[in-house]
Structure formats: C-alpha cells, structure tokens
TrEMBL record:
It holds the Pfam family ABC_tran. Keywords: ATP-binding, Cell membrane, Membrane, Nucleotide-binding, Transmembrane, Transmembrane helix, Transport. This is Putative ABC transporter ATP-binding protein. It is found in: Cell membrane. The chain crosses the membrane at residues 50-71, 102-123, 185-202, 208-226, 289-313. The keyword Iron-sulfur does not apply. One of its GO terms (molecular function) is ABC-type oligopeptide transporter activity.
Amino acid sequence: MSIGPGGPGFSGRRMGGRGFAGGPPMTRPAEKPKDFKNTLKRLIRYLKPYIFQFYIIIIMTILSTFFNIFAPKVMGKATTKLFEGFILKIRGVPGANIDFAYISHILLLLAGLYVLTSFFAYIQQYLMVGVSQKTVQNMRRDVFEKLSKLPLKYFDSRTHGEILSRVTNDIDNISVTLQQNITQFISSVVTILGIIIMMLTINPVLTLVTFATLPLSVFATISIASRSQKLFVKQQRVLGELNGHIEEVFGGHNLIKAFNRERDSIDYFNRINENLYDAGWRAQFMSGVVMPIMHFISNLGYIAVCILGGIFVTKRSITIGDVQAFLQYSRQFNQPITQLANIVNIIQSTIASAERVFEILDEEEEVADDAKQVLEKVKGDVKFEEVNFRYREDSPLIEDLDIDVKAGQTVAIVGPTGAGKTTLVNLLMRFYEIQGGRITVDGVDIRDISRENLRKIFGMVLQDTWLFNGTIKENIAYGKEGATDQEIIVAAKAAHAHHFIKTLPQGYDTVINEEASNLSQGQKQLITIARAVIANPDILILDEATSNVDTLTEIYIQKAMKSLMKGRTSFVIAHRLSTIRDADIILVVNKGKIVEKGTHRELLEKGGFYADLYKSQFMGAAV
C-alpha cells in the first residue's frame, strides 16, 4: 500500500468508472478506434451469414418508420374536417354538420397505420435480436478458441481482468449496439428524410423556417458538448482515483488500523470526494444545459411556424390540419438528429470495443505441432542439452543449460527468486518454446511430440491451487476423464485427503465455492495432489507445493507427495530446503545457470551457494 500526501493513497492505479447518470449521452466521451474502417469491415464479416435477415430488418425498419411518419399527415385530415364542420356551424350555414363518418374512417386508417408500425417494429426487433446474439455467439466462440491456442507468454504479459474485460464487456457492448443502435440509426436516418419530405409536401416556406433553427441548434450542441466532454473526462479520472483509494483502504484496512492512519485515510478520501463533487457538478450542469437550450431554439421555430401557419390558413394556402401535422413534424425533427449524433458516438465506442476483441484474434498463436512421434510407454529419462532461452531479446535468462535426469530420480531445483526455476518447468511442458538446444524425454525431442501427448506424460502440483466451482469429487476427477467413484476415493486416500473430506457435511459431494474459501489452504493442496494421483502421470512436477501451509499440514502433504513420487521421475521446486533433503539430485540454479549439482550432503560439504542458502534459512529461523 502506498502512502499519498496526507494519508494512504494509491500507487498510480486507475479504476474504471461509468460516471453519473443524467445528461445527454451524446456529451459523454467515447473511446475512439485506431482503425475505424478496417475494424468495421471485419465486424461486417461476422454479419455476412445473416445478410438476408439483415436486409429484411432494414426493410421492416423503413416500413415501420414510414407508417409512423405518415400518421400525422392523416391525423391532419381529420382535424381539418372537424375544424371545417365547426366553422360552418358557427357561421350558421343551413344543414352544416360535422362529417363524423369521414373522421371515423380517418381514425380507423390511423389505427391501422399504428398497428402496422408496431407489427413491422416487432418483426424488425425479433430478427435483430437473433442476428445480434448469433453474431456475438460466433465472436465469443472464436475468441475462446483463440485463447486456448495462445502461448503462456500472452497471459503472463496481461492481467486477467483486461482479458476478461475484452471477452465479456467489449463483446456485450457490440451485442447491445447491434441489437438496439443499428436499427435506431436506420430509423433516425429514415425519420429525418421522411419528415423533410412530408414538411416540403405541406409547405416549403414553413420547412425553410424550421431549417433556419437547425444551424443554431447544431452550434449550441457542439459547443456545449466539447466543453462537457472535457469535464466528463475529468470526472472519470477523479472517480477512478476515488475507486482506487477505496479499494486500497478496504484491502489494507488491518494495516491502516495497525498504524493508526484512519484519520489520514478519511482526510484523503474527503479531498478526492470534494474534487469528484466539483467535477461531477460541472459536468452534469454543462450536459444538463443542452436540452433546455435545444428546447428554447426549437420553441423559437415552433412560434415562427405557428404565426406563419396561421397567416397561411387565413389566406387558405394550407389547411388547419396541415398546420397541426407540420407542428408535429417540426417537434419530431430535432429528436432523430440528436439521436443520430448519440448513436454515432456509441458506434464509435463499439468499433473501439470490436478493435480490442480483434486484437486478441490477431495475436500470434503457439508454434504449430509437428507431431512425428507419440510416446506411450515412458520410462522417464529427461535431458536438457545446451538449452538457451530468454523472455526478452536483450536479456538472456538460460544459456547452454545441460541437465541429465535418469528414470525414477527425484530432482530438486533450488535457487533465489528469478533464477529460472519455474522457467525450466515451463520449457519442459512447452508452455514456452526454447530458442536453442533441445529437451528430450526418453531420447525424443519434445518438439517432435504433440503438446497434448507431451502434457499427458506430466502431472503438476503447483503452489497456486486451482479448484473450480463444483464438488470435491468433480475437482479430483478433473485429472482423469471418466474416473469412477472408487478411483476418486483411492486417489484421495493416497493424497491423505480422504479423512478430512469425510468429515465435511456432504463428503465428496461438498461444493467448493467460487473462491474455494470454504476449504483451508492445506485441504485445497491435498485435493490438487489427489487430482495428480488419479491422473497417474509418468513424470511429476511439484512447484512450491508446501510453501503456503502450516507445519502439520506440510507433513501430510509431504507424505502424500512421497507416495505420488514413488517410482516416477520427479521435478521438485522448493524454497524450503528442508523438504528436499532426500532428493537424488539437487540442482542449484542462479541467473539461468546450474551453479551447483549433487545430493544434499554433498552440497553442504562443498560449502558453496547451496550451503549458504541452507544456513541462511535455518539461521534466520533460529533468530
């Protein structure tokens, strides 16, 4: 935890924030794509299999919008007929009556138009939901398949949250845009064109008056939007700081209390909260100003249309119903323009999301397998011959490494942090590819064996226990497809896990929750060992398997691992040197090289690097 000025702060971490509700969406800052054109083309390719449905959606949207636009014109005819009847009656014209039959006919026609509008809108929405969900389903499938083909270095160089955000949030963003905003975009364009045509057919002069207010509306919107965007960016940044501070405070509340820094933390929170209030107030005020100004400008045009319309009615240039219809059109005119601007902003953000998804699909995959040989009966001889490897081109990690492990031997790998211990395992499993030399199993170069075949040979028990949300039985059976209940129990007994499992309320059917917090660290480790037992691997890899458990649990795990390692070639990575005394060979690794090799006794007698490590651990423990 970092201490900022005046109290616990944050270490430069930014948390995403959505901002506050309110204000026209068009004023919100949108992430811009780097290559809009090519990303849009790739997104359209996903829509190609549904191009026929998409054409129907466009036709349905146009028809629905057209009937909706046509309705005010029809309603104007009823108004005109009603108005004329009233005027004749007021004037006392003999036999003058309101033509209710005609009005009823118009109202029925109007009802039919609205029914057709709703029907076409329903068909359009029904088809669009199917197209959008199918499209993102295919996209998710491609991304998930791609992730399974990516090398380990891709996941090591990115946070899980970032990858998860692309697979979930970005694809969901695409889904929402396809489902809602594409049809809204078409509808807005058709509405604008339709309204212009209808207004021109009613009266070109009134249309010009309405258009006269448009540049004023656009200027006002753009000028306010440009200012409010900067304010929303600041609001998002300050909100991110606030979220980061809150996360750190709750994550390290024990430390804050231990050092009596509660007051500093609260003061720091209050300062950020005050900044957020200021930024949020300004952003919301600026975005809130847009609509009143738009309404004011729109009302100026409305007044002008009313005055001119009244004059034209008195001169019998147009009917009262046409004026009513025109007023409805002028009221509707600004809405699709604002909506269109908003949708353009959203589409821009969506293309940016698609670009992030396509970045995953464009990542370089693992080197293709050249599976010339299949290993079935494995003895367990493993050799590293002049192996070279580096994570970065300018920084060699392993150079000319030679290791010769005989079948059935237990090889311990020790050394300081960053020496390359886990890297050796990653190379052996082909999580990373070597850049020089070769690694062989029973004399066969591992690059000539498929990764699937190679990884069946190995069983791994790692420091970080990975258990999925399911029963204990399912987690153990993960090591062997089609494992029987009896095999699961035998594996659990071999791992010394059977006893504690039977004490649980549901035994082997106990469900492990999402965080696996209903089991202790030692219990989780024993389950992972049982999983390795049931897999019955030819070669075993144990990576810091006892580093996070107490001494008593370590004894159980050590017993379980000895049982598991019996008769198998085993690679053991350990920080606790007391756990590898009985290893056949101890390899001391430092800066990617084997600096010492021998048994525990031989290395202690040599008095070199290993002896210093061993003494430092036990002297430190004694102190």
